[in-house]
C-alpha cells in the first residue's frame, strides 16, 4: 500500500497511484489504505479529491469515488484537471467539477451544485437536483431534476429509471405523462430546442 500516497491540502485531497499496477489491485489497495487511515480523515465532512500518477477512465474514477465514500462516509466532489483549451462545449461540460453522493433523496431534500451531480440512489417525489452540469442518477428519478441550470443546453440527465415530476435542461422543460413510465436506463437531452427522453443503448 506504499504505492498509494495521500496528500491533504486546504481545498482538496490528492491521491497518488502507482501506474504499474492493474486497476483491480489499485482498488483493493485503495480500500485497504483508507481503512488504516481513518485518523487522517477524522472530523472531515466533505472534501474535493483528485487522482494523480496514472490515467483513469470515468468508470474507474467512479469506482474509486464509491470506495472512498463507503470507507469514510465523507461527501466528495471530483477535481478534474484536464486541459481546457481547444475543447468543444460538450467536452468542456464533461470537465466540470463533479459532486458524488450516495443515498436516496427523500421528500424535502435537495442538491444544488454548480457542476455535475452523480447520485447513487433514487430522487423521490418532493426531492430535487439542480446542477450547472450533467446529472447522473444510479436509481430512479421521481422528483424534479434540472441540469444545465445556467443555460447549457449540451447537458444531459441520465438515470436507471425515469418517472419524474419534471425534467429540465437549461430553459427547456418536460413533464412526464401519468401513463408513461420508463423503467429502464434512459437519458434526457435537447435536440432542436426540444427535450427528448430515450433509452440508453
- What is the CATH-assigned architecture of the largest domain? 3 Solenoid
CATH topology-level name of the largest domain = Pectate Lyase C-like
Mean pLDDT: 83
Order of helices and strands: EEHEHEHEEEEEEEEEEE
Overall 3D form: elongated
Please, could you describe this protein's structure?
With 201 residues, the chain is of the alpha/beta class. It has 2 domains: 4-78, Transcription Regulator spoIIAA, CATH 3.30.750; 89-199, 3 Solenoid (Pectate Lyase C-like). The protein is built from 3 helices and 15 strands. A 10-stranded mixed sheet has the order 1-2-3-4-5-7-9-11-14-15, with helices on one face. A 5-stranded mixed sheet has the order 6-8-10-12-13, with no helix packed on it. α1 packs parallel to α2 (58-72). It is elongated.
Quick structural summary:
This protein is an alpha/beta fold and 201 residues long. It has helices at 23-35, 58-72, 89-94, and strands at residues 4-8, 13-17, 46-52, 75-78, 98-102, 110-113, 116-120, 128-131, 135-141, 144-147, 157-162, 166-169, 172-174, 186-191, 194-199.
Spell out the blueprint of helices and strands.
Blueprint: E1 4-8, E2 13-17, H1 23-35, E3 46-52, H2 58-72, E4 75-78, H3 89-94, E5 98-102, E6 110-113, E7 116-120, E8 128-131, E9 135-141, E10 144-147, E11 157-162, E12 166-169, E13 172-174, E14 186-191, E15 194-199
Parallel strand pairs: 2-3, 3-4, 5-7, 6-8, 7-9, 8-10, 9-11, 10-12
Antiparallel strand pairs: 1-2, 4-5, 11-14, 12-13, 14-15
Amino acid at each position: 500500500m506504499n504505492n498509494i500516497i495521500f496528500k491533504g491540502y486546504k481545498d482538496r485531497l490528492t491521491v497518488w497511484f502507482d501506474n504499474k499496477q492493474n486497476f483491480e489491485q489499485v482498488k483493493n489497495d485503495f480500500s485497504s489504505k483508507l481503512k488504516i487511515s481513518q485518523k487522517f480523515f477524522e472530523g472531515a465532512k466533505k472534501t474535493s479529491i483528485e487522482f494523480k500518477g496514472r490515467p483513469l477512465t470515468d468508470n474507474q474514477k467512479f469506482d474509486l469515488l464509491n470506495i472512498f465514500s463507503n470507507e469514510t462516509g465523507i461527501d466528495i466532489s471530483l477535481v478534474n484537471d484536464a486541459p481546457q483549451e481547444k475543447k468543444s462545449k460538450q467536452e468542456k461540460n464533461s470537465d466540470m467539477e463533479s459532486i458524488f453522493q450516495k443515498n436516496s433523496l427523500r421528500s424535502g431534500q435537495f442538491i444544488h451544485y454548480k457542476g455535475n451531480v452523480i447520485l447513487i440512489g433514487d430522487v423521490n417525489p418532493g426531492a430535487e437536483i439542480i446542477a450547472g452540469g450533467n446529472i447522473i442518477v444510479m436509481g430512479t428519478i421521481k422528483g424534479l431534476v434540472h441540469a444545465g441550470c445556467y443555460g447549457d443546453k449540451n447537458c444531459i440527465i441520465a438515470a436507471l429509471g425515469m418517472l419524474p415530476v419534471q425534467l429540465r435542461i437549461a430553459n427547456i422543460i418536460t413533464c412526464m405523462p401519468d401513463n408513461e413510465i420508463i423503467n429502464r436506463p434512459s437519458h434526457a437531452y435537447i435536440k432542436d430546442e426540444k427535450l427528448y427522453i430515450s433509452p440508453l443503448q
